[in-house]
Amino acid sequence: MTAQQNSRPTLRPLKKSTMQHLVDRTERALFHNRLVVLLMFLVVSVVLGIAALSLRPDASFSRMIPTGHPFIVNYLKFEDVLRPQSNVLRVLVEAPQGDILTKEFLETLREVNDKIFYLPGVDRGNLKSLWTPNAMWAEVTTEGLRAGRVIPDTYDGGPESLAQVKQNIQRANLIGSYVANDFKSVVIRVPLLESDPDTGKPLDYGAFTQALEQQVREHFADQGVNIRVIGFAQIIGDLLAAATDIALFFAITVGLISLMLYLYCRCWRSTAVTVLTCLLTVACQLGLLSLLGYGLDPYSILVPFLIFAIGISHAVQNINLMMSEMGLGATPLEASRRTFRALFIPGTTALLADAVGFITLLVIDIGVIQQLAITASIGVFVAIFTKMFLLPVLMSYVGVSPRGMQQQHKRTHSSWPIFRRVAAVVEPKVAVPLILFSLVLLGFGYHARQDLKIGDLDKGAPEFRPDARYNQDNAYLLNHYTTSTDVFVVMFKTPQEQCARYAAADLANQLEDTLLEVEGVESVQSLYRAMRFNILARNEGNPKWAEFSRDQFVMNNARSGVASEFVDPNCSVAPISLYLADHKAETLTRVVNAIEAFSQQHDTGEFEILQAAGNAGIEAATNIVIKHSEKLMLILVFVIISLVVWWEFKSLRVTFALMAPLYLSTVLCEAVMAYMGLGVKIATLPVIALGVGIGVDYGIYLYSRMEGFLHQGLKFRAAFFEALKTTGTSVAFTGVTLAMGVATWSFSALKFQADMGLLLVLLFIWNMVGALILMPAIASMLLYNKNTR
C-alpha cells in the first residue's frame, strides 16, 4: 500500500474489532440454531397476527388538536359552553322540489331531528333546529316584548300554521344561518360529546358517521329529501370509510413491487421470501399496536406501506449481496452468513436512522402526529428483527435459483459500461460542476420555498378532492347560506356575574368592531350583540337606544333570555363568534394578530380576552404549533441522524457527504409543495421526516460497501465502481420501484393520499440520485486527493 493510501483518514472506529466480534458471535448463534429461530418467529408471528385482527380504525377529536397550546387549554377549560361552536356537525336537510314550508317537509325534518337526537355521542342539550325548544323568536310590539318557539305548540301543518312558521323564522333572524336564503333547506346544528355516554370511551367517529349515514342520510333519501353533513366528525368518518380504498392501493403497491422484484432477480423463491417477510413485518407491527391499545387513525393508516417500503429497501440489499456471494461459488448457507456479516452493521444503522426520523415527530404536540411517530417506530423495531435475523435465515434455506444467478451475471456485466460512466462523478472535472449545480438547485429551492404556507390553502376539506361529496356539501352551504362554516371563537372572560357590566360590554363591543375591520371576518355573533338588540326591542325599536347603558338594571334586563350558547351560567364567559370567509392560514393569522394587538393596546383590567375555540380557532392553534415545530423537527432529524451516521463511520466528512444530498432533497420537496399550493399541515409534515429517515438508507449501504473496498486497498474510483456493481444496482432498483409503487396513489379518491404519494415519489427518486451521484462526488472532494483516485 502506498504512503498516500496510508495517509487516508481512518474511516472505521477503533472499536471495530469489538463490533465485528459481536457480529460474529451473533452470526454463529443465529445460523447454528436456524430451526429454533424460525420456530420462535413462527410463534410470535401467530400471536401478533391474531392480535392484528382486532385492530380497528380509530380517531379522536382531542388527538387531532394540540392540547398543550394555550388556545386549546383555554378551549378545554370552557369546553361545556364552547362545544356548540367547536366540535359540531351541520346537517342540512334539503327539499329538492319546492321549499321547506310544506307539511310533508316539516314532518320529515322533525323525524330527522329525532333520529339525530338519539344518536350516541350527540350533545342533546345543545342540539338546535327549527323543531328544538331553543329555536326562539322575539319581537317588539306596542304591548311590549313577545317571544316564542319558531314552530309553536299549536302548529298543525295547515296553511295558517305554515305562514306562522315562516313569520317566526323571519322574527328569529334564522335566514342565512339555520334556513337557506332561498328557503330550499334547513340546518340542524349537532354538537358532539368527546366521549360516548353509553360506554365512557372516546367517541368513535367512524361508528358515529356510519350510523348517521345509515339512519339519516340513506334512510331519508328514500323520503324525497337530500341530507348533507359538514363538520370535523364527518371529515374523519369519510377518511375512515375510505380505509378500504387505502387497503386496495396498498395491495396494488405490494403487487407492483413484487412484480418488479421478480423481474429484477428472476427468482420466485427469493421474491416470495422477501415479500412475505415484509408483509410479516407489517402484520407484527399491527399486532403490537393492538396489544398496546393503539388504533389506526386516518393519517397513520398509511404507515404500514412505509414499513413495507423500508423492508423492501433492506431486503433488496440482502438479495443482491446473496447473488454476488453465490456467484463466487458460495452455498446458500455460506452466502447468507457472509451477507449477514456484511449488512448487519450498516443495516442496523440504517434502520436506527429510520427510527430517528420517525421519533423526532414526537416534538410536535399534536396527538395524531405523535401516534404516527409511535406507530412507525414500532414498525421499524419489528423490521430490525425480521430483516436482520429472519430474512437471512430464510435465505440460507431457499438461496437463489440458477435462473436468478444467470440474471445477476447478465445484469452485472451488461451494466458495467453504465457503472463506469457513473463512477466518473468522483473525478474533479465532473464532481466540481456537479456540486456547483447542486448548489444552484439549493438556491433555487430556497427561493421557491419562501412561498410555502402553513395550514390549509383551499376551501372545504383539503383531504378530499374538490368533487368529493363532502366538499360538494360544503360548497352548497356556502352558496345558499350567509353564515360561514369557519367559526373563530374568542372567549371574553369576566369575574362571575360581571359579564353584563357596562365596562365589560363596552370593551367587548370595541373588540368586535375592531375585528369586523379585519379582512376575512364577515360577521360577529355574541352576547353583546344580543343585549343591544334586547335594549332596542325594549325601547319601542328605536335605533337610538341600541347602545349599552350605565344603568346596571337595564343591562341585567337585556341579558335575560339570551341563548345559553352566548354565555355560561355564571355570567363569566361570553364567547364572541367570528364567521370567516375561509380557514386559510393567512386569514387565521390576521385574526390572531388583531386580537393580540387589541389586548396589548387596551387595558383589559379584570377582563380577559382569551383565544381560541371554534373550528377555525382550533385550526389556528394547530397552524401555530406546526409552524413552530417544523424547523425544530427538521433540525432534530438532521442532527440526530447525522450523529447516527457519524457513530457508524466516525468521520464528519463522511457524515456531511451522506447528509448533504438529503438536505437538498428536503429543500426541493418544500419548493415543490410551495409550487403545487400544498401547505405544511398534519397530512404533509410527517412526509419530510419520513423521507429523510428512509433516504439515508441508500447512502449508508453504498458508502459502507465502498468503505470495505477502500480497506482492501482499492482507490476511490475503483471502490465506488465495485460498490455500484453490487449495492448500487439495488439502491437504484429500490428507489425506482418504491417510487413507482407510491405513484399509484395519484389515482386515490383521497387528495391527501395523492399528495403524500407525489411527495414520496420525489423524495425516493431524489434521495436515490443523491446517494448514487452527489454523495460520492462530495465524498471524493472531501476525503481523497488526486493520488488516491
UniProtKB/TrEMBL annotation:
<feature type="transmembrane region" description="Helical">
    <location>
        <begin position="301"/>
        <end position="321"/>
    </location>
</feature>
<feature type="transmembrane region" description="Helical">
    <location>
        <begin position="342"/>
        <end position="364"/>
    </location>
</feature>
<dbReference type="Pfam" id="PF03176">
    <property type="entry name" value="MMPL"/>
</dbReference>
<dbReference type="InterPro" id="IPR050545">
    <property type="entry name" value="Mycobact_MmpL"/>
</dbReference>
<keyword id="KW-0812">Transmembrane</keyword>
<keyword id="KW-1003">Cell membrane</keyword>
<keyword id="KW-1133">Transmembrane helix</keyword>
<feature type="transmembrane region" description="Helical">
    <location>
        <begin position="430"/>
        <end position="448"/>
    </location>
</feature>
<feature type="transmembrane region" description="Helical">
    <location>
        <begin position="656"/>
        <end position="676"/>
    </location>
</feature>
<feature type="transmembrane region" description="Helical">
    <location>
        <begin position="682"/>
        <end position="703"/>
    </location>
</feature>
<dbReference type="InterPro" id="IPR000731">
    <property type="entry name" value="SSD"/>
</dbReference>
<protein>
    <submittedName>
        <fullName>MMPL family transporter</fullName>
    </submittedName>
</protein>
<feature type="transmembrane region" description="Helical">
    <location>
        <begin position="724"/>
        <end position="747"/>
    </location>
</feature>
<dbReference type="InterPro" id="IPR004869">
    <property type="entry name" value="MMPL_dom"/>
</dbReference>
<feature type="transmembrane region" description="Helical">
    <location>
        <begin position="632"/>
        <end position="649"/>
    </location>
</feature>
<feature type="transmembrane region" description="Helical">
    <location>
        <begin position="35"/>
        <end position="55"/>
    </location>
</feature>
<feature type="transmembrane region" description="Helical">
    <location>
        <begin position="272"/>
        <end position="295"/>
    </location>
</feature>
<dbReference type="GO" id="GO:0005886">
    <property type="term" value="C:plasma membrane"/>
</dbReference>
<feature type="transmembrane region" description="Helical">
    <location>
        <begin position="759"/>
        <end position="784"/>
    </location>
</feature>
<keyword id="KW-0472">Membrane</keyword>
<feature type="transmembrane region" description="Helical">
    <location>
        <begin position="246"/>
        <end position="265"/>
    </location>
</feature>
<feature type="transmembrane region" description="Helical">
    <location>
        <begin position="376"/>
        <end position="400"/>
    </location>
</feature>
<feature type="domain" description="SSD">
    <location>
        <begin position="275"/>
        <end position="397"/>
    </location>
</feature>
